[in-house]
Design a protein that fits this description.
Radius of gyration: 37 Å
Strand content: under 5%
Low-confidence stretches: 1-46
Distance between the termini: 120 Å
Number of strands: 0
Helix content: over 70%
Length: about 450
């Protein structure tokens, strides 16, 4: 006899154990039995999870991945922000060093050729190349400045004529309808404006003088750094390699040499493109008798070092001078010449000259120039594309699984900027060069 809440006797509990425990064993061992839909936890009495626990775990996976990606992105963005901040703060040192590296990429092949063919010491070869480059630059600047001074009277005369014949009727007619007496008094208004803003002009001249002093110190630093880059560049690169772990030093060496080969190809192709642009547009200006032909050609040459944007701006200045000095018809012809030269540059010269050395999409070039202008103005626009080209070549080398030995790469040859195994023809040439170098060392040892 039992009451509510009373415990059943032991002889009544034992049959229940015998009937419930063997049930999973019989179902698992019998091939014809239908498995139970209940999980094993229900048979052993374990607590069951909530029905929506598994969907919650699945939904937490993508959220965790996104949060980790965002955290890594914030860390990388913070590191890049610190680097950019330091570069901006140290721009007086960083920009001259970067310009010196560009000039070293342009002049290092000349130093190597002089050392190999003329059998000169590297220090003497470096001095000869630097003296020759400075002399050539001084002659070009002297020629451009003298041409600019000689062409100013002609430009002033043509501007007066163009103002009386073209600009004045345009301003006095619709839709502006400026009164003729105000247009006649325009030079007097200009003089009064200059007199009223004497303080602003004086402060601007002082700031310009400070800028000129800063530029002079920067040029001195460029020359000093350039000498050591040309004379002792290998030792400088070897010292920088010590910052990498020993296991990754070989790949870093290969990536750095390919990046410098890409920079050599970029500077060489940019100089050739700039010369072609200046000569082509200069010939068009000379044929159309536009004043200041040589200074405008020099401006086009300098503008070509800023890809895409520089050529467009310098060509626009040439078209504007032609419009003001010679009229709309001449300006249209000069515009056609500028467009033709730009098409020749973008579709013929750059693909042939840059080739495999610099593999950058035009969109990447434009975005790099825009970012450089925002960060550091003209200097940023000048250095942005070479920086992107160097980073691109280095990254392609690092992600390539098969790379040759660092001794097989010539950082002064733009063809070695492409990542991957060296072509058979280049490999045979490098083997011959290595054999000749080893035989020369053996002869030197015998003589000693």
């Amino acid at each position: 006899m039992s009451t509510d809440g009373a415990e059943p006797p032991d002889n009544q509990q034992q049959p229940a154990r015998r009937t419930t425990e063997p049930t999973p064993t019989r179902q698992a061992s019998s091939p014809t039995s239908v498995p139970s839909d209940a999980p094993p936890s229900t048979l052993t009495g374990a607590p069951q999870a909530a029905p929506d626990a598994r969907p919650a775990a699945v939904a937490a996976g993508p959220l965790r991945v996104v949060s980790e990606l965002c955290a890594r992105f914030l860390v990388i963005a913070a590191a890049l922000g610190v680097v950019i901040f330091l570069v901006i703060q140290l721009r007086v040192v960083v920009i001259p060093a970067a310009i010196a590296l560009l000039l070293a990429a342009l002049l290092a092949p000349l130093v190597g050729t002089t050392t190999q063919h003329l059998r000169l010491p590297r220090g003497l070869a470096t001095g000869l190349v630097l003296i020759g480059g400075i002399a050539l630059l001084s002659l070009v600047l002297s020629f451009v400045i003298n041409a600019f001074i000689a062409g100013l009277p002609d430009l002033r005369t043509r501007l007066i004529q163009s103002f009386e014949l073209n600009i004045k009727p345009l301003l006095s007619g619709p839709p502006l309808r400026l009164p003729p007496e105000r247009l006649d008094d325009l030079p007097g208004e200009l003089q009064r404006s200059l007199t009223a803003n004497t303080d602003a002009i004086t402060s601007g001249a002082l700031s310009t003088a400070a800028t000129v002093g800063e530029m002079a110190s920067g040029l001195a630093l460029v020359l000093f750094v350039l000498i050591f880059f040309l004379y002792d560049g290998k030792r400088v690169w070897g010292f920088l390699l010590l910052a990498f772990p020993v296991a990754q030093r070989r790949r870093a060496d290969i990536a750095g040499q390919r990046a410098f080969a890409s920079l050599v190809g970029y500077t060489r192709a940019t100089v050739v493109v700039a010369v072609v642009d200046a000569v082509g547009i200069g010939i068009g200006l000379w044929v159309m008798r536009v004043p200041l032909v040589v200074p405008l050609a020099a401006l086009v040459f300098l503008g070509a070092f800023v890809p895409v944007v520089g050529a467009v701006l310098s060509g626009s200045v040439a078209v504007l001078i032609a419009l003001v000095a010679n009229g709309p018809f001449t300006a249209l012809i000069v515009l056609g010449v500028v467009i033709a030269v730009m098409q020749l540059e973008s579709h013929v010269l750059q693909p042939i000259l840059l080739g495999r050395a610099v593999q950058l999409h035009p969109l990447a070039v434009v975005l790099a120039v825009a970012g450089g202008v925002v960060i550091s103005g003209i200097a940023g626009a000048l250095l942005a594309v070479p920086l992107v080209a160097v980073i691109s070549a280095g990254v392609r080398s690092l992600v390539t699984p098969a790379e040759p030995n660092p001794a097989e790469i010539n950082p002064l040859d733009p063809r070695h900027a492409k990542a991957g195994p060296i072509e058979p023809r280049q490999r045979r040439r490098l083997v011959r060069v290595g054999a000749a170098a080893s035989s020369g060392l053996k002869r030197g040892r015998r003589q000693d």
